[in-house]
Amino acid sequence: MIPRSCIPCEKIDPDVYDWYLRHAAKVAESKEKSADIIFIGDSITHFWNDGENISYGKEVWDEFFGDFCTLNLGFGFDRTQNMLWRLQHGEGDNQKPALIVLNAGTNQFSITENYSGDTPAEAFEGVKKLIQTIRSRWPEAELIVMAVFPRLPENPTQKNIDQLNGYIKNFLQENADPKIKFIDISQQLRKPDGSFNADLYHDRSCHPNADGYRIWARALMPEIHRVFAHE
């Protein structure tokens, strides 16, 4: 049976913004610009720079990516199946990015009235489907796959995240693709003793603040410099 994490669908849970309005805006934006870098993900990507009056690190985004044309396809509370649906319905159309950054998977473990949560194996299948979809759609682009970021350790989700990251890492190692880079900044988002560093999170549990986003941006820059060195 195909896990639901792989079956494209529209929004599942409400958030602080209008999902359908944002989708329409991103379809229009895809038609209006030619992005150098496309970011695909959930609220962690969404709220980095353009979150409908919610932004936890816009100054960091502008500092590191201001010289590039970017397309932020992050949507709050999205799961892998929502990202797959959006990519099937106009987001990213007409684009030929040099680089794509994928950060997906944490919401597979968010249990709500509308969603009972996935196992790490089911979550991995959704992330794998996204990787395959992106590579098929943009075969010339470089792809950075981010390990899912740490969350508040009291949350049992962290064990699932660790297992999911292991599945993703092993899959990419076993199916080596020179155009795919796996980046894991989990340790940088923790304290030196390995414990969760709430000071790097806006809500002290899940979403990075400017300091957390700066760590992510710095981790991306070597790959960005490499990809755009010949442009």
Query: What is the overall silhouette?
Result: globular
Tell me the Rg in angstroms.
16 Å
How many individual β-strands? 5
CA distance, first residue to last residue: 45 Å
- Main sheet: strands, sense, barrel: 5 strands, parallel
Question: How would you characterize the overall build of this protein?
Answer:
There is one protein chain. With 231 residues, the protein is of the alpha/beta class. 40% of the residues lie in helices and 10% in strands. It contains 7 helices and 5 strands. The chain has helices at 19-32, 43-49, 58-65, 80-88, 120-137, 157-174, 210-227; strands at 37-41, 70-74, 99-103, 142-146, 180-183. It has a 5-stranded parallel sheet, with helices on both faces. The N and C termini lie far apart (45 Å). The mean pLDDT is 95.
